[in-house]
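Subject: Protein entry, chain in single-letter code together with its fold tokens

Category: Structural biology, sequence-to-fold work with a learned token vocabulary.

Notation: Tokens come from a learned vocabulary of local backbone shapes, not from coordinates.

Start of record: The labelled sequence and token lines come straight after this line.
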Amino acid sequence: MYEPVIGLEVHAHLATETKAFCGCANKFGVSPNTLTCPVCLGFPGSLPVFNRKALDYAIKVALALNCRVNNYFKFDRKNYYYPDLPKNYQISQYDLPLSVDGYLDVELESGLKKIRIKRVHMEEDAGKLVHTQSYSLVDYNRSGVPLIEVVTEPDLYSPDEAYCYLMELKEILEYLGVSDCDMEKGSLRCDANVSVRLKGETVLGTKVELKNMNSFKAVKEALAYEIERLSGALSKGEKIIQETRLWDADKSITASMRSKEEAHDYRYFPDPDLVSFTLDKSELDSVKKSLPELPRAKRMRFEKEYALSGYDAGVLTSSRDLAGYFEECLKLYPQPKVLSNWITTELLSYLNEKKISINEMSLTTKALVGLLELLDNKTINRNSAKDVLKIMLDTGKDANAIIKEKNLFEISDDSALDKIAEEVIAQNSQSVADYKSGKENAVMFLVGQVMKKTSGKANPQKVNEIIRSKLK
């Protein structure tokens, strides 16, 4: 029986205004090759100047991942030729990176697991190749964009563990505000190193690197496929070759790309155009003080402070902006469970359907709280409140105006409900007989008929009481 061993390398674009070593804008979606200069195109005589904001962002990530930040680090040239690399080398870090020896606690179904972080280092991105059937194009706008690379130790033992780790890491990067983590834009990319070995062995098997995975779901699927392929090959007595393989999402298979390079293949050497850097304690302390409350700490606080379930706390803290929206609502409406129910169900359902973030919607915290207060004082019932919320989200209109315009005021007049209940009971003799024979659910059918006749505007609790009273 074979078991997999997985290590992940995550590259994240840093959300700085300019590139890592020049003043070109760091933007996505503009015309090809318009955000370039002699420095990021590698013209002879041009000299790089390091972006201080990129350093601050990278230190934030290192500290959030419990890494030891080195007070002395340098940049190196990673030499290789490829059309998207105009200098024929990439500025990266090799033997003296920014930080090492960290860890990330990941919540799995089996409990908390500590994943060791080998290093967090800085580098620049390459350009982007666009392939057609007959030719390839290159866009150097991305060339020189600041990156961090987060490298784990081989501490992951299943595709599910890898997926959970990636989700946890993405949340941290978003909370820190250092990257938009948009995989569709290429802002977040993941490579996976995977090997298999007989259960009980401690020596690692020959590893294969997987690339070209553009979503966490793809990482999970690619790992599952490769683990099965490697296990099958070893079962047949075949020798595993260390190589890089690409994930083909259309065919759901991996395909060989090239033999795996080692560090010496890149001929690393210190970049002569960039001085070594020394960090003093005051600089490190300054960045440390700017760290926000991180996702796991916030989840635990939400559970303890607001008495929320682990699931609800997890959903609310999955986004820093969503958690902030929830707590802003709490200042106006101190009922955490009620707010949690509405935000995690009705609100998130709408946002997911429209594929927008909470920052892109028009519903203010004051408007949502106003709707819930109308529900509390029985101006409307819950069903109507759900309808009103959707209209508010679509149109930006005030809840009171919508209720008045649609005549959604709750019908709670006893005499009116009494009359409708009598009609429903008279029209549904079979349900009355079912109830009297012990079928409790028959009452709910009758309540539903009253709600239907009132277009959902009746108070369902009151209707239930009236129906039961009459059936007795």
Remarks:
- The radius of gyration is 29 Å.
